[in-house]
Each structure stands twice: as structure tokens, then as C-alpha cells.
Amino acid sequence: MDRRFWASPILGCAFFVMAGGAAAAEELPRPSTRAADLAPAEWSQIAQATQASEAQTNDLDEVIVTGSVRTRRQSETTAPVYTIDRRQLEQKGARTLGDAIRNVPGVASNIYGAGSDVHNGHFIRGLPTTSTAILIDGRPISNLNQQHFDPGEIPVNNVERVEVMPTGGTTLYGSTALGGVINVITRKPTRPLEGQVSVEFGSYGYSKYGAYYQGRSGNFTYNLAYENFNTLNNYFYSVERPVGRLTGIRPNGDFSQRSYNLNLSYDIDPRNTLSLDTYIRNTAKGVSPFSITDTRTNVFAGLSAEQLGFNNDHKSRLSTDTWGVALTWDSKLGQGNDSTAQVRLSLDRSRNRELDPAGEDFQTGVYLLGLRATHNWQLTPSWNLTYGLDWLKEIGTSEVVNLNQVDYNTSLDRPAVFFLNEFRLAPNLLMNAGARYSVTSQYGNSFDPSIGVRWQIAPNFALRSNWSQGFKAPNFDDLYGKTVHKGNPNLLPERGSFWDAGFDWEPTPSTSLRFSTFISDVRNLLTINLVDPRQPDFPYFASLGYINGDRVRVNYPAVYITGLEFGFNWKMSPRWELFATGTYTDARIIDGLRPDISQTQYQLVPFLVGNLGLSYATPSGFRAALFANVVGGRSVDTYHVGPSDIEVRDPATNNPIFLEHIAKLPTGSTLPGYATLDLSLRVPMGENLTANAYIENLLGTYFEKSYGNPAPGTNFRLGLKSTF
Fold first, then answer.
1. DSSP string of 382-417?
2. Is pLDDT at 376 greater than 90 in this prediction?
């Protein structure tokens, strides 16, 4: 049966029920309407509210900021927003944003344990991170990307909480929010001086040193954070193939990163605040699109797989240097709190440099200049209006350094205006309606509306639904980038329609359940295809100057995504807590340019991810948590990260012969699912000192996280953390 036949009635019924009427329910007090509500004068209140919410058993009404430029509660939103607080970050053992969002409803991740690679991925409702807006305290940072923005490169040692809105957010945040929004809320000082120092060591050369130092003096606040991370990822792997079991040591998996963040803020007066936010990240790593080594010694004419170049994908080196600075002015207009403005000027720069096995030195550099101005206006007690202007300018260069060859040196402008109305139609009925108008010189203009409804049927039960359109123009890297994934100047903009419907329910004061079903219809979704002279599209790629084995950005004309997600939490007692999450995603490629791709799952997206956890905590600070994780089948993705075939010549006829890597699988295949069991421990060692331990994959099973990227067996991390 066509997925449209079962998904569309669910959505239609949800809208019909919401519009049918509502039983009266008491309206919650409206929170402050201050833009972003992150001014230093209110940070102490926010910190206290966050601590109070952590102590409560009810997690459906936490204070959130994602999806709006003002603070509000979950009961005031039409879209689900999932919060990962500081306690959960530590319990998960999250080092990066990628670790933090793992097992969030709607997020399908194939990254577990050591060996995380850029070619593994996170997907929000089936869409990759290229279509997800990643914000730091409300500021977008994911416009600078190569093939995709990797949340695994953002440390969370200085993070208060992470908010994930797994639905279209383009109205407020633009094209990178096509599939959702991830907002990282950093810690804010509540005392004159406070800080933390941490150290962690683990398997396969894992080491991490981190610290943050923050405080407040009069009207001035500051926050400085640093992290140094290194790992070798040289673990043993074992995977099954039709030819038998393949084993080895993961090659070229080392990763090294330095990260610096400095945030300064000054209260000009009680109604105006000026903030300066900066970051620097330096990363060097091995890039292994396919990490299973072909060890055959006699493949063709007495030559080994290594001599023929089957393992060249293991040998690229990538360095990334990124920095950014933003100046933000927050102001309360008028005399009250009903009109607020925010103006932000930002500059970000990213340089990706890759040395491939042939010795070519590719480099792509992008500067991104941004201006954002928003006004939030509480026109009446039941009507809030947000509107504003976004302007982005990309300036980029791509070149082959060793040949002194500059291929592109150009700039792109991306202005847009937006508005969002939020109405309280009745004490228990909310609605929002907005639109974004984007202007591009290369792809024309786009008007993209959105609408959402929330009906609070009872104090403990609500129905909600949302619909939006989205538009995403290719960025400079997509069009002109170099490195292992080549840009394509003929790309088309992504466009899509997004629906979701669901409910929030608290059966008892100690239990909560959120459920959503979603549908996304996306056209021209950005992806990668492998240049192959045996394919009918080879002349097209050759006309752009690409050769056999190049991986080039292309558009899939049609991708249709359906699925469901849920999150359950039960506070069984003051010390025991049970939690479970699950996401099912059918990301079907309707038209994938090549017949063998069409009607297959979008690359790397697991059909199913699930998590079941049990935690125990004492008033003294001891905590233990056990996690069971399940990941379903994933596409083998032969044209994206799979090994390219080697072309040789028949000695007798001089005709081309194509040889396959021993671990290659046919297009359309799916990798088998897997399960892991992880243990997390927190042990207080003194008033300000704690020890942490994380043991991953307790069962010691071997599996393939994504095509060509095997996982290790049991691995561990041990650490100490001191606060002052």
C-alpha cells in the first residue's frame, strides 16, 4: 500500500479534531517576551527555572526558546521540542553535540561508541544535517559546511542544555532549517566566579581535557571555554560479507581537535544589553569513506588490492579551521516587556583543506557575513507577532593548492524577510501562522508559509499539528567546493512540504508520553553520486571536468519521507527513572537519477532507532544508568561512501575491466540491524569532585555502523571533573 494512503488520513483526522472544539482549560501565565530571553539580567532566573524543572517529574512544560525568539513553555508550542539538560548530557557521556542528540525522538543516528566518522550521520525525520539549522544561543552556525555539517565537531563541555525541534523551522531560521532546528544553550554565570576542569581517557587513544571559567562583575559577564580532544580510533573490527568474515584494524581514523569559546556581555542599562560571542575550532583527521581494508594479495595480473588502489579511500587527510564572531544588541522597547528587538552582526570563516592519496592538495574557503534584525511584539494578551530581516553574504574560493590553480572565487547574497503570528484563539487553543520570503539572484525568489495548531483538550493531554513549506538554495561549498566531495555548479534548490501531527500526554504526575507522525515531500534533495564511465550520466559529469571515481554533489528529484517518533519517561520513585525513545523513518527515494537508486531508502538513514534506559540516583550525587540501543537496517549507499571500482586493461584486448572491492555490496542492499548495551556511572569523590565512567557495547558485539564503517567491540572512558 502506498504510504500516502495511511499517513494522510492520520494528518487529516488530527486537523479535524483540533478544529472541532475545545474544553476550557486554565491558561498558563505568559513568560517574558524578551528577545531570546538570554540577557544577563535574567540569566539567574533562567538558571533557577532550569534547576527547578530538573527536580520536577513533569518534563512536558519546560521553559524553551527554540522555534521562537522568546521564552515559552511546551504547552505554548505547536511543535514538539525535546530538551537534553545538563544532567542528561552527563548521563549519556556526551562529548559532542552529536552525542547529545542521539536517541532524541525524531533523530535517527547510526553513531554509537568509538570510531565516529564524518560519513556516519544524524538525520532529523529523514533529512541530513545539511537541512538542519544548528544554533548556538539562537545564532545559526551551520551555514558553513562541506558535504554536511557535523554535530560531532561541536563540544558540549560548556552547555546548559540542548533543544531539538524536529520539524521545519525555515520561517524563523531560513533554508538550513528545512528539516528542523537544534539550539545549543550555553551556561550562563550566576555567581561572581565559577568554573569547571575535566579530564577523560579511554580506549584507542581517547583523551579529552576541558575547562570553562565564567563570572559576573557588576553589569559585565564573561564565559571562556576550552577543550582539547584526541583519539586514534585504531580498533579491531569484524564484519560479515558474502565472501566471509572480514577483519582488520580500522585505518586512518585518528581525530584531533582544539576548541575555544569566549562570550562577553554588558548591560548598558536595565533595558539594553550588548553581547560579543566568538569561537575557534581547529580539526585534523583522517578521512575514510570506506574503512574496510581489502587485503587480497593477488587480484589482477599478480597485483594486490593495495597496489591496485582499492584502499586509497583510507588515506585522505582533512584539516578544518573555523572561527566566528558575532555582536548582538538586545533591547526592550517602550516602557514594558511587550516589545523587544534584537540585532546581530556576524562574521564566520571556514577553511577545509584535504590531501588525497595522489598528492593533490584541495582547499575550499568560505567567509559568511550575516545580519539579522528581529522585533517581537506582544500586540494583545492573545496575539504575539515576530518579524524581521536576514541577510547572508557568502564569499568563497576553491583551489588546488599544489597546482596554484584557483577554480572559483565568487560571492553569493541570500536576503530574506519573515514574520510569525502566534494566536491564542481560546484559553486552550493556540495557533501560529507565518511565512518567509527568500530572494536569490541565481534561483529566483521563494515564498514559504507555515501554520500550526495546538489544542489542550485537558490539563494533561494536548493534540498538535504543523504544516510548512521550505526552500534551500545551494551554498558555495555545494556549488564550487573541492575535497573528496566535489561541488556542482548546476545544482537546483531544495524545496519541500512538511507535515506532522501528534499528542503530548501525562497519564500521571510521574509519567509523560509524546508521540508524532510526520510526512515530508522533498524535491531536489542534495546528495552525492559517484562518477562511473559505465553509467549513462557519465558524459554529463565529464562535461563538468570530473573523472572516474569522483564523488559529485547532485539533486535527487523526489524523496518522500514518512515516519513516527515517541518519547516516554516514568519517574518510578525519587531514585529510579525509566525512559524510552523510538523513531521509525521510511525515507524513500522516489526518483534517484539512476534506476537502481529509485525506490530505495535514502543513504545512511536507519529505518528504526530505539533506546530503553534505566537510571538510579541518590541524594549524595551517585548515579548509574543502563542503556539498550537498537538500530535497524541502513542503505549501503554505494555511490556516496562506498568504494569505487578499479578500472584496468585486459592485456589481450586492451578493453577496460572493472574490479570490485571485496567488501562491496549491491546498490539497494541494507546492512543488518544491531543492538548495544551501555553503562554510565557518576561517583562523587568530594564536595566539588566527581568521577565518571562509561562502558559502551557491553555485549562486545561487532557490527557495521554505516556502509564501510565498522564499530569496535567493548570500549570505555574514565574521567574526573572538578567544579568551583
1. TEEEEEEEEEEEEEEEEEEGGGTEEEEEEEEEEEEE
2. yes
Matching residue, cell 564566520:
348
The model's pLDDT over 121-155, given as tens digits with 9 standing for 90+, comes to 678 999 887 788 888 887 877 666 544 567 777 88
Averaged pLDDT, 309-316:
84
Identify the H or E element spanning 41.
helix 40-55
The DSSP code sequence of 275-338 is EEEEEEEEEEEEE-SS------S-SBTTB-HHHHTTTGGG-EEEEEEEEEEEEEEEEE-SSSSS
What single letter denotes the amino acid at residue 170? Answer: T
Count Cα atoms within 13 angstroms, Cβ side, for 1: 6
With bands split at pLDDT 50, 70 and 90, how would you rate the model's confidence at 67? low
- Distance, CA of 123 to CA of 233 (rounded, Å): 23
Burial of 448 (0-12, 13-18, 19+ CB in 10 A): buried
DSSP readout, 175-208?
GGGSSEEEEEEE----SSSEEEEEEEEETTTEEE
Q: How far apart are CA 155 and CA 153, in angstroms?
A: 6
Once rounded to an integer, what is the mean pLDDT over residues 507-522? 96
Instruction: Give the pLDDT mean for 475-484.
Output: 82
- Count of beta carbons in the 10 Å neighbourhood of residue 411: 12
Tell the burial category of 9 from Cβ atoms under 10 Å away from its Cβ (0-12, 13-18, 19+): exposed
Query: d(Cα 506, Cα 258) in Å, to the nearest integer?
Result: 43
Compute the half-sphere exposure of residue 376: CA atoms within 13 Å on the CB side of its CA: 22
What pTM was computed for the model?
0.87
**Terminal Cα distance for the chain, rounded:** 60
In angstroms, the Cα distances linking 497 to 143, 167, 224, 451, 453 are: 21, 11, 41, 12, 17
How far from 402 is each of 15, 399, 485, 495, CA to CA, in Å? 59, 9, 18, 38
Predicted pLDDT of residue 44: 34
Answer whether 622's CB lies under 8 Å from 509's CB. Answer: no
- What backbone torsions phi and psi does residue 612 show, to the nearest 5 degrees? -130, 125
pLDDT the model gives residue 603: 85
pLDDT value of residue 31: 33
Q: Give me the residue label for grid cell 552525542.
A: 99
Average pLDDT, the chain: 85
| Dihedral sign, Cα of residue 33, residue 171, residue 109, residue 485 | negative
DSSP three-state, residue 361 = strand
pLDDT at 695: 95
Give the Cα separation of 126 and 561 in Å (integer): 7
Measured distance CA(277)–CA(325) in Å, rounded: 6
Q: Is 481 helix (H, G, I), strand (E, B) or coil?
A: coil
DSSP-assigned states of every residue in 130-150: GGEEEEETTEE-TTS-SSS--
Quote the pLDDT of residue 672. Answer: 93
Confidence of residue 551 (pLDDT cuts 50, 70, 90): confident
Percentage, residues of the chain above pLDDT 90: 55
Residue 423 pLDDT more than 50?
yes
- The helix/strand/coil state of 350 is strand
Instruction: State the DSSP string of 100-115.
Output: HHTT-TTEEE---SS-
How far apart, in whole angstroms, are the C-alpha atoms of residue 652 and residue 301? Answer: 12
How far is 164 from 499, CA to CA, in rounded Å? 17
Cell of 32: 517574558
